[in-house]
Specification:
five-stranded antiparallel beta sheet; 491 residues; four-stranded mixed beta sheet; single chain; 23 helices
C-alpha cells in the first residue's frame, strides 16, 4: 500500500470485498447510496463497486457529507502507517495534529512548529488528505468525544470541554453529524463499562500480527523505578502531558492493547492516547515490514518465527534522549540506576494508589539546573548530559513528533559525546525513524555474525541497504536472537 493509494480503485475494491483488515486506516470507503463511510474490513455486506468511492481520511469523508458506519466504527481504525514512515511536511503535520497541537495552539501554532505558512500547510493537507488541519482536528475531537461518551458517566458539558470543543452546541452538532446519533443516543447504545478508581478503560487497535515479546519486554527490562513498572501483566508508567499528568497501564491482548488511563485533566485524553500508540508503534504496517525483511534469506527465518515485531518507542522524546546518554557504555541495570537517582532527586512527585509509580521524569529545565558535580558519572558523560539538557532547556535543540529526522540527527551528532549509536538510537526510538540503524551495536553485530551476515559496521550497513526503509525493525529481529530480558514478555 502506497502514498495516495485511495486513488487505486481496483486495489481498494478488492480490499473491501475481502474485508481485509490490513488496510484499515489506509483509506476509507464512502458508500454513495447510504451516505455512510466504512473501514475496509467492515463486517457488513460490501456495497456494489459502482456505489463505492474512496477517500484518504475520516475527515475527508465527513467533509463530503458521509457519516460513520455504526457497525465497523471507522473512526476507531488504526492510524495510517504513512505518518510514521515518512518525514515530509504532511507526515510531520499529521503527527502534530494527533498530538493535539491544533486544539491547543490553532493552525498558526501548527504552522509555526513546522516552519511553513498556514497556506502551505492547508494546501498540502488538502491535496493529500482531502481535508485541512481544522477538519482533521475536528474528526479527532469527534473520536475523543465518542470515547468519553461511551466509557464514562461524565456530564456531556464536561465531555465537550475535555474533547476540545469550543461550545456545547458545536459538540452536539459535530457528534450528530459524524455519527448520526445525538450524544445521549450514543451513550444509550454503548455497553456499560466499569470505571476502576477513576480510570478510563480503552482498547487500542493495531494491524495484526503484533509480537508483544520484545515490545513489552524492552519497556519492562529498561523501566526506570518510580516512572515505570511491570505489574499484574501490564506495563505502567507516568505521563507528563500538556495540561497535567497521567498514569497509564498497557496490557497486550490478542486483538488489541488494553489501555487504562488516569488523567489529572481530561483535556489530555487525545494526546495521551496518541503517545501510547506511538510508544507501542501501533500504527505500523507489519505486512509491509515483514515482507521486505523476508526477502533476505538470512533474516527470513527470524521473521517467520515471530512476525509482527514492533519498535519500542517513547512517550517523551527529551526523556529518551537523556536516558540514551545515561545508557552509554553501561549495562541496562546501571542505566536504570542512574536514571532512578535523577528521578528521585529532580522529578515531580505523583500519587499512584494502584502501584509503585512515584514521579514524573525530570524536565530538561530541571536537569539543566542540577550541579554537574553532583552527577555520579564519568566527566565526559557528565559533559554530554549537561550539554544535551542545556540545549533542550533553551530550545536550541528540539526533539518532538514534528522533528525532521535527518536534521535532528545532525544536531545530535554535533553535541560532545554523541556518536552514531546514540544519535541513531534516539532517531529510532524517540523520533520514530523506521529506517534508523545501529551497525555498531554489540548485540546487532553479535547476531549478524551468528546468522552469517557481515559483522563489521561498514559491510553490515551495505548489506542492510536491501532492508530499507525498515532497518529499525531489522534491528528488533537481530536483537531478538539474544536471551536478554528485553526480548522476553514478563510474566
Amino acid at each position: 500500500m502506497q502514498k495516495g493509494m485511495h486513488t487505486d480503485r481496483e486495489h481498494c475494491v478488492r480490499a473491501v470485498q475481502s474485508k481485509d483488515a490490513r488496510f484499515d486506516g489506509w483509506f476509507f470507503t464512502a458508500v454513495l447510496t447510504t451516505r455512510i463511510y466504512c473501514r475496509p474490513s467492515c463486517p457488513g455486506v460490501p456495497p456494489k463497486p459502482e456505489n463505492m468511492t474512496f477517500l484518504p481520511s475520516a475527515a475527508a469523508c465527513q467533509q463530503a457529507g458521509f457519516r460513520a458506519c455504526k457497525r465497523c466504527r471507522p473512526d476507531t481504525s488504526p492510524g495510517s502507517p504513512e505518518w510514521n514512515r515518512r518525514a515530509d511536511l504532511v507526515a510531520r503535520a499529521m503527527r502534530l495534529i494527533a498530538d493535539g497541537t491544533v486544539d491547543r495552539e490553532g493552525v498558526p501554532g501548527l504552522a509555526a512548529r513546522l516552519g511553513y505558512s498556514t497556506r502551505q500547510i492547508e494546501r498540502q493537507l488538502l491535496a493529500e488528505l482531502g481535508a485541512g488541519p481544522q477538519a482533521l482536528a475536528r474528526a479527532q475531537r469527534a473520536q475523543t468525544a465518542r470515547l468519553l461518551i461511551e466509557t464514562t458517566g461524565l456530564p456531556m458539558a464536561d465531555i465537550a470541554f475535555a474533547a476540545g470543543f469550543s461550545s456545547i452546541r458545536t459538540f452536539n452538532d459535530t457528534v450528530r453529524e459524524v455519527f448520526a446519533l445525538t450524544p445521549t443516543e450514543l451513550r444509550a447504545r454503548a455497553p456499560r463499562r466499569s470505571v476502576h478508581n477513576g480510570a478510563l478503560s480503552l482498547r487500542l487497535p493495531f494491524r495484526a500480527p503484533l509480537n508483544p515479546d520484545n515490545l513489552f519486554g524492552h519497556l519492562a527490562a529498561t523501566a526506570v523505578p518510580g516512572v515505570e513498572e511491570w505489574r499484574d501483566g501490564a506495563y505502567r508508567r507516568t505521563l507528563r502531558l500538556p495540561y497535567g499528568h497521567g498514569i497509564v497501564a498497557l496490557t497486550p491482548a490478542p486483538d488489541h492493547i488494553a489501555c487504562r488511563l488516569t488523567l489529572s485533566d481530561l483535556r489530555d485524553l487525545t494526546v495521551a492516547i496518541s503517545r501510547c500508540r506511538r510508544l507501542l508503534d501501533l500504527d505500523a504496517d507489519p505486512a509491509a515490514v515483514d515482507d521486505q525483511l523476508r526477502a533476505d534469506p538470512l533474516l527470513a527465518p527470524l521473521v517467520d518465527k515471530a512476525p509482527g515485531r514492533r519498535v519500542p518507542r517513547t512517550v517523551d522524546e527529551a526523556e529518551f534522549a537523556v536516558r540514551a546518554v545515561l545508557g552509554q557504555q553501561v549495562s541496562t541495570a546501571a542505566a536504570r540506576t542512574h536514571a532512578a537517582r535523577l528521578v528521585t532527586a529532580h522529578g515531580d512527585p505523583v500519587e499512584d494508589p494502584e502501584g509503585g509509580l512515584t514521579h514524573l521524569f525530570p524536565t530538561p529545565e530541571a536537569l539543566a539546573a542540577v550541579d554537574p558535580e553532583s552527577l555520579a558519572m564519568p566527566r565526559t558523560r557528565r559533559t554530554t548530559l549537561t550539554t544535551l539538557v542545556g540545549r533542550l532547556a533553551d530550545h536550541s535543540l528540539h526533539l518532538g513528533v514534528e522533528s525532521d529526522w535527518a536534521a535532528a540527527r545532525a544536531q545530535l551528532l554535533a553535541l560532545p559525546g554523541f556518536g552514531p549509536w546514540t544519535a541513531d538510537v534516539i532517531a529510532m526510538r524517540a523520533l520514530g525513524d523506521p529506517d534508523a540503524f545501529l551497525p555498531t551495536d554489540l548485540g546487532v553485530r553479535r547476531a549478524a555474525q551468528e546468522l552469517g551476515l557481515p559483522s563489521t559496521p561498514a559491510a553490515l550497513t551495505a548489506r542492510a541497504a536491501a532492508w530499507r526503509p525498515w532497518r529499525a525493525y531489522a534491528v528488533q529481529y537481530l536483537w531478538a536472537t539474544d536471551s536478554h530480558p528485553i526480548n522476553i514478555l514478563p510474566v
